[in-house]
Amino acid sequence: MLVSEDPENYRGHVVAQADAWLLGSREVVSLAAESSYQKTLRLFGGSASELYYAGVIQNETVLLRNPRLLLNLGLRAEQVNLDVSGKGTVRYGNYSPRASLIARLKDTHTLRMTWATAYRTPSIWEVSDLTSGVSNYPPPVPMNYVMFSNLSLRPEEVQSFELGYRGRPLRWLRMDAAAYYQELKRSIQFLQAGMPLIYENGPTRKQAGVELGLMVRPLTILGGHLSYSASRTTEAGSGQVLHDYPTHLVQIGGEISKWGSHVTLDFNYVSSTAFSLMQSDPSGIVNNSVRNSAQTLLNLRVG
After folding, report:
1. Over 50: is that where the pLDDT of 87 sits?
2. Are strands 197-201 and 147-148 parallel, antiparallel or unpaired?
3. β partners of residue 119
4. N or C: which end of the chain has fewer CB within 10 A?
C-alpha cells in the first residue's frame, strides 16, 4: 500500500454572535453559535472527516459600580463527530463552564479570580492509523512498525483556578501578577514503547505556578521590562515531579530612545527539561529519556 506524503485538507468555519444589554446596561448577555467541517483525503491511504458545532452563552453583570465589581459566567456546549474511513465514527460531547469575579478597586488596580474547565477532543491525526504494509512513508521504516487508531480515546480535560492582579502601583511602574493551579486529566500520549504504537489517555497531571510581569519607565527615553514564570508539574497518584516543561522562564530587558535612534537589549532564560522520547532501533521501539540543557539568548536591536 502506498501512503500519501501530502494529505489534502479542506475546512470551513462559520460563527454567529448576538449581544443584548439588560437591567439598565448593568448586564450583558451574549449568545454565540459556531460550526466547522474538515475533510482530509489521502490520509495514510484513507480519508477522515470532523464535524464540530457548539453553542455558547455568556453573562456579565455589574454587581457594584464603585468600586466596580463584575461577575462573568459562561458555558460552552460542544459536539465533535470524527469519522475515519473503514474504522468507524466516534462522538464527543462536552460542557465547559467558567466563572470569573473582577474587582476594579481603582482605575489603576484590578483584582481577578477565575475558575474554568476546557476540553480538547482527539484530532483526526490521533485517531487515524498507519497500518502494516507501508512502503514509502518517510522516514523509511520496517514493515512491522505500525500505528493503530484508538477510537476509544477520551477528550483531554483541564480544570484551572487563578488569582491575579493588574495595575499601576506607581506612575512609572506597571505590574501583572498571577498564581494558578490546574489539573490535566486524560492527557493524550504514547504510554508504552511497544508495537503497534497507539495513542492512549494518560494519568492526571497537576500543575501549580506563578507569573510576574513588570514594566518600568522612569524617564521618557528609558524603559525596562521583566517577566518571570515558575511552575511545578506532578503526576497525580505517584506524586512524581515531571520536567517535560520548563520550570523557570525569565525575560529581562531595556530600551533607550534618543536622537531619533532606538536601542533594545533583551535577555531570555529557559530552564532545562527532561522527557521521554520513543525511538526506533533494530530491536523495535524503545523509550529513551532525553534531557535538554538550560538555554539562554541575548538579543540586541538597534534602529
Report:
1. yes
2. parallel
3. 157
4. C
